[in-house]
Task: inverse folding
């Protein structure tokens, strides 16, 4: 049953919802794209105004680009002090954008999937990153995300992975 609005966060959970997912997004730069995703999170009250600047600064200092077996992915995040309520904002890109590689900052990776993590509790960050890394190693899951035509398809694929990991999802998908 579709939701009529955001549910309250439970402690230790983060929000994954279709209104925080952009599919086939176009952006001229990674900064523009991160601005769009941070804007979604800000409009919904998940992050503070300081989130975007902190996200950009952290991405510059600690790049998050990662080449998986089938596509480039970036997992930008920043300090918990910039987050009001935990959530993920996700974008698949119509055209890849260059992100600097996590393991070699001099190398740029053409990224097609960006997952911005807004984590409120430091203890959630490692667990969330581990779960995202599991997804990134799953070629079938990445293919589903890459081929998704709408946010609901991405959410349906991801919520199976996050259902037991403290995720509060909200979309018109039967549970």
Result:
């Amino acid at each position: 049953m579709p939701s009529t609005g955001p549910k309250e966060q439970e402690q230790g959970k983060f929000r994954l919802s279709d209104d925080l997912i952009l599919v086939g997004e176009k952006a001229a730069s990674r900064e523009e794209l991160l601005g769009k995703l941070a804007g979604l999170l800000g409009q919904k009250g998940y992050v503070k105004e300081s989130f975007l600047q902190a996200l950009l600064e952290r991405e510059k200092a600690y790049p998050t680009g990662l080449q998986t077996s089938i596509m480039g992915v970036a997992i930008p995040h920043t300090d918990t002090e910039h987050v009001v309520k935990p959530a993920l904002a996700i974008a698949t890109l119509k055209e890849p954008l260059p992100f600097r590689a996590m393991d070699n900052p001099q190398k740029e990776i053409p990224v097609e999937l960006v997952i911005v993590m807004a984590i409120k509790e430091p203890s959630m960050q490692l667990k969330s990153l581990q779960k995202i890394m599991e997804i990134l190693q799953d070629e079938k899951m990445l293919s589903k995300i890459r081929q998704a035509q709408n946010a609901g398809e991405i959410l349906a694929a991801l919520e199976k992975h996050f259902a037991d990991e403290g995720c509060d999802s909200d979309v018109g998908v039967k549970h």
Summary: The chain has one domain: 14-167. The radius of gyration is 15 Å. The beta strands are 14-17, 21-25, 65-67, 72-74, 87-100, 108-118, 167-170.
